[in-house]
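Appendix B, record 7
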Amino acid sequence: MLQLDGDSFMKSSYAMLLFFFQLGANFSIKFRTNKRIIMSVQPILANAAVSISDFKKSPNAALKESHGQPVAVLTNGHISGYYISPEIWEAMAEYMEDIELGKIARSRMKGKRVKVDLDEL
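Structure tokens (predicted):
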């Protein structure tokens, strides 16, 4: 398994936002010189990466080696997916739910306001 440099994945809110973006859109960055592509770089948004063949042999070993942090699974040098622990999945699901609840709260704040006295409730 290849360990990538950088801070812990979950400690960086910027990396977390990029991770969510990656879930919704597959993208790569291409460098061009004289209208020729010389390199295509796909960002790896995890601190660890493993080849698909090693991942198939033992998915849990890949997660254990990364100490529970997300693992990028590579096929022919390109990211085919991310493997994450159940705890991280639950944290992401809760975060997404919080975002949705925030949208609902903001939309309700635009409506008609009614003064209420707590003693009358």
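Remarks on this record: The longest strand covers residues 36-41. The beta strands are 2-3, 29-33, 36-41, 48-51, 71-75, 78-83.
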